Amino acid sequence: MHSLFTDSYHSHEFCLKAVNEDLFKDFINLFNNYKGLKPDDTNLYFEQGGDINDYCTACVRGCGEYETLSIGEVIGEYACDHNNTEFLDILIKHNYSLEHVILYAAEHDCINAVMYCIFKNKEYVNTYGHRNKTPLYYAISNMSLPMVYLLLDYGADPSLTYSVAQLNYLDYALWVWENYDSDVSWHKDAKIRIIKLIIERGTKVTSTKKLSEAQYELLKSLDNTY
């Protein structure tokens, strides 16, 4: 059912667990008739008693792990995919956390949605997601210099660690520099500038032993304390 709300490469299967199933099904039918979701209809759904925490989908993410999403999370993803913050206003109105939204927005390079979340609450900037990855992880993955600037300026902490390996975001930025190839001309420069930005925040790698020879040589050329 999630695929009705968003254009996604994930595989999905229907998993309805709603407080008011008839109301929820009417909402889905309305979506199908309009071939899209409208803020007024979404707001009316909640005013009529729809529960923002209803589970409306189950999906298998790219990593192969099973995940259930609430209708609030699905609407947040829809807002990001369609660059429409009116849906985020509705979530705020119903006291819904934007933690899932900022992680999804950062992963899909939706900078307007990321800004919306941060402007509502700066604490969202270091939201922990899957394996303790924060929005900064996804911004680095996308080699999105504007997103990295934004997150760092609003307090993203590049010294935080994620995954079992306990890497921080300087470790990761160096790994991306060496391993992520791109045909986009400005990506090469962006990868270097992202590393510089993180170094300027005073971040050190967790261990030089984790670095490849090429990563270590680059690091020494950018930070003379190594």
Concise account of the structure shown:
The chain is mainly alpha-helical. Helix content is 52%, strand content 8%.
What this model shows, in words?
The protein has twelve helices and three strands. The chain is mainly alpha-helical. It has two domains: 96 residues, no CATH class; 95 residues. A three-stranded antiparallel beta sheet has the order 1-2-3. Strand 2 and strand 3 form a beta hairpin.
Key traits:
single chain, 226 residues, mainly alpha, 2 domains, three-stranded antiparallel β-sheet, 12 helices, 3 strands, 52% helix, 8% strand, elongated
Helix/strand-derived category reads mainly alpha
> In the residues, how many domains can be counted?
2
Q: N-to-C terminal Cα separation, in Å?
A: 52 Å
The number of strands is: 3
Strand order of the largest sheet: 1-2-3
Radius of gyration: 20 Å
Q: Supply the number of helical segments.
A: 12
Overall helicity? 40-55%
This entry's quaternary arrangement is single chain
